[in-house]
């Protein structure tokens, strides 16, 4: 039925009209065909909420008063919830807001694998593990699309660094792609019915992703059966013919010469000269129209959802996600702090800094953002709080041009201007904080990175904390060993200088508008933390596989020689001890386990066990199932379940392993196949903390 309608529309369209539909006619829209009732397709960033409005052809904000929206946590935070229903809720909020703002395609979620902790956009991405990333991404997408908005998974594929992101050639074996880097994209395409995919800037095995005949035609379209919209990253197309003959539907870019885009006049001319067949264009238009029907922009338009903007429920959702994203890395009897404190010292620039409106296309003009200090005041009104900034963050020079306008050029790296003046200020701030820390019994430090470091377009140079924070934290801990340290960062940072001395360490990614309220609730015990790391925290940068082999960030090419040994897989296989392992995260409560059994149900294996909350807090534990296929191979995550228990409560829980858990990519047959044999099963509360082992025959 819809296919017939699509063919009928296609017959009506002139070549020029079709061309208008396949390239940007604004920074965030294509051209419509008014005479046929086809409206432009409206896009918007991005993963942490709906981005502010820009002029049609310039990166100049419209400064509208009505585009402040719900600011959601970033991907690397959300992943720590290990809670698919919260990923779904995130999607629902984002989808509703996008719809209410009149968008058709929301450029989210960002689902690249975290290959190195240095990648500037890790704060948007989910995890180093494909199973965790894929399962959460699928729920995000389903949630978004409930509002008749297309989710757009990005950046397909192997966009695992920002250094030379426009041209770097990622050399990755087919097997590694299928096992690791494709997985989340495959999941959203085959399990969540995603309606849009964004091609990455970089090359994959010698070919730009946006020109990728194998990547787009063979894998995405044929193998995964994807029939909807593919859109280039902004400025990722380099050749009309190559991209037109690949299964890329829409070219978007960052400049305002829309008629000069590769898919505009240059393509039109080539078609007229007979150099490119018009059938390619028809296919693109079909995919675009099919997507429009799916989101009810065409067809059943009357029943298209209206969405909701800045809804109270959205803020409640943002809080819930933030709360479950917080990871308690270490706690030697210090947390939670008592709500009856009289006096508190709060240290650190991140206690007051706002992060929403920075860091690249994921920036958000937030309705509000509650930083930690404000959250603590909200929750403990009559507490006497002294605040010391602790470390000095030099102001960055601002450019007259918008960053995105500059984003296609090599961006000159802004060095920390650690001149004498800055050093002196840092010393002054540090001394003030350390002197105060001696006088206060209760001290909270809010340290970490900000969106100068967790940023699109640049990678970090190393894993160290900037602005002299290692020294600050070490000195504060000497002055007050009970000081609680919260580190905010998009991905792992080096804590080796002081982690041994700290008694309590909390970590989180960017938590969105409700940051401060969520953190205050965890710190003062209104809620038990339940986040679990979605990436390994190492002692040193060289402990990560991509760095151990010297392949990050590479030069023109970067060889993914570590293959599947990304993240904890490498740490296990090569016996490297992490500082905090994948899946780790403490609670204020404790849990006991008993009665593990398993049974085969058709092709599934069901594992049952009893779990009891034996501590004094209502809390949650995430039970993780790892599968090892062969002796010497690392165990890998295949299933997990977050279980909520009131204090004293006991439940029987079960976790299922399906066939996917035992299938591996067979390079010769070019497909996944279940490998028969003995498998070892490890059930634990992190990849290292295994509480039950067994073997099964598949
Ligand atoms: C980013 C994309 C983003 C696009 C539009 C690009 O620079 O890589 O993630 O969606 O800009 O703002």
Question: What does it look like?
Answer:
With 698 residues, this protein is an alpha/beta fold. It folds into 3 domains: 40-257, Glycoside hydrolase, family 3, N-terminal domain (TIM Barrel, Alpha-Beta Barrel); 312-548, Glycoside hydrolase family 3 C-terminal domain (Rossmann fold); 589-697, Immunoglobulins (Immunoglobulin-like), CATH 2.60.40.10. A 6-stranded mixed beta sheet has the order 11-16-15-14-12-13, with helices on both faces. α5 runs parallel beside α7 (183-190), α13 (372-379) packs across α17 (515-523) and α15 (420-439) packs parallel to α16 (469-479). The protein starts with a helix and ends with a strand. The mean pLDDT is 96. Residues 45-46, 107, 154, 233-234, 361, 407 line the site of beta-D-glucopyranose.
């Amino acid at each position: 039925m819809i296919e017939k309608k699509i063919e009928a529309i296609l017959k009506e369209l002139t070549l020029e009209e079709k061309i208008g539909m396949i390239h940007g006619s604004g920074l965030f829209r294509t051209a419509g065909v008014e005479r046929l009732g086809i409206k432009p397709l409206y896009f918007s960033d991005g993963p942490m909420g709906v981005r502010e409005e820009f002029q049609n052809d310039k990166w100049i904000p419209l400064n509208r008063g009505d585009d402040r929206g719900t600011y959601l946590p970033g991907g690397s935070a959300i992943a720590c919830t290990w809670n698919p229903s919260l990923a779904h809720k995130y999607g629902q909020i984002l989808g509703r807001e996008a719809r209410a703002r009149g968008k058709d395609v929301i450029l989210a979620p960002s689902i690249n694998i975290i290959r190195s902790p240095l990648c500037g956009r890790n704060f948007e991405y989910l995890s180093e593990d494909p199973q965790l990333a894929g399962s959460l991404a699928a729920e995000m997408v389903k949630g978004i699309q409930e509002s008749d908005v297309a989710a757009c998974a990005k950046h397909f594929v192997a966009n695992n660094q920002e250094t030379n992101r426009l041209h770097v050639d990622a050399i990755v074996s087919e097997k590694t792609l299928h096992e690791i880097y494709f997985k989340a994209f495959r999941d959203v395409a085959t399990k969540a019915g995603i309606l849009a995919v964004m091609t990455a800037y970089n090359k994959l095995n010698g070919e730009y992703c946006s020109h990728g005949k194998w990547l787009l035609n063979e894998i995405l379209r044929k193998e995964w059966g994807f029939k909807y919209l593919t859109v280039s990253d902004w400025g990722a197309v380099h050749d009309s013919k190559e991209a037109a003959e690949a299964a890329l539907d829409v070219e978007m870019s960052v400049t305002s010469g829309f008629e000069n885009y590769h898919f505009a006049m240059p393509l039109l001319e080539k078609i007229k000269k007979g150099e490119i067949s018009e059938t390619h264009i028809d296919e693109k238009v079909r995919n675009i129209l099919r997507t429009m029907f799916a989101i009810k922009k065409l067809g059943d338009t009357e029943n298209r959802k209206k969405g909701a903007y800045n809804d109270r429920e959205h803020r409640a959702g943002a809080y819930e996600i933030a709360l479950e994203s917080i990871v308690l890395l270490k706690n030697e009897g210090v947390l939670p702090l008592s709500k009856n404190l009289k006096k508190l010292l709060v240290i650190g620039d991140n206690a007051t800094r706002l992060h929403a409106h920075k860091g690249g296309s994921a920036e958000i003009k937030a309705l509000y953002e509650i930083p930690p200090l404000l959250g603590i005041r909200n929750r403990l009104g009559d507490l006497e709080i002294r605040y010391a900034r602790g470390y000095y963050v030099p102001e960055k020079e601002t450019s007259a041009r918008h960053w995105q306008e500059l984003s296609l050029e090599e961006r000159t790296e802004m060095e920390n201007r650690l001149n004498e003046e800055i050093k002196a200020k840092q010393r002054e701030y540090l001394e003030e904080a350390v002197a105060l820390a001696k006088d206060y019994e209760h001290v909270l430090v809010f340290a970490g990175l900000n969106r100068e470091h967790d940023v699109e377009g640049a990678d970090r140079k190393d894993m160290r904390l900037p602005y002299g924070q290692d020294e600050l934290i070490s000195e504060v801990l000497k002055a007050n060993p009970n000081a609680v340290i919260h580190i905010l960062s998009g991905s792992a940072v080096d804590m080796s200088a002081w982690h041994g001395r700290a008694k309590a360490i909390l970590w989180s990614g960017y938590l969105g508008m409700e940051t401060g309220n969520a953190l205050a609730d965890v710190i003062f015990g209104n809620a038990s933390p339940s986040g679990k790391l979605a990436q390994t925290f190492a002692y040193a940068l060289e402990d990560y596989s991509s760095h151990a082999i010297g392949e990050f960030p590479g030069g023109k090419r970067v060889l993914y020689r570590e293959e599947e040994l990304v993240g904890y897989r490498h740490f296990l296989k090569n016996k490297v001890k992490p500082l905090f392992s994948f899946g780790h995260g403490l609670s204020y409560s404790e849990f006991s386990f008993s009665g593990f059994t398993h049974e085969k149900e058709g092709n599934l294996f069901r594992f049952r066990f009893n779990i009891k909350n034996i501590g004094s807090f209502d809390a949650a534990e995430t039970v993780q199932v790892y599968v090892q296929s062969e002796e010497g191979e690392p165990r890998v995550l295949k299933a997990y379940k977050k279980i909520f228990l009131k204090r004293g409560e006991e439940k029987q829980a079960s976790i299922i392993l399906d066939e996917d858990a035992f299938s591996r990519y067979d390079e010769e047959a070019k497909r996944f196949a279940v490998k028969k044999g003995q498998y070892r099963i490890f059930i634990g509360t992190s990849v290292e903390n295994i509480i039950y082992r067994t073997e099964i025959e598949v």
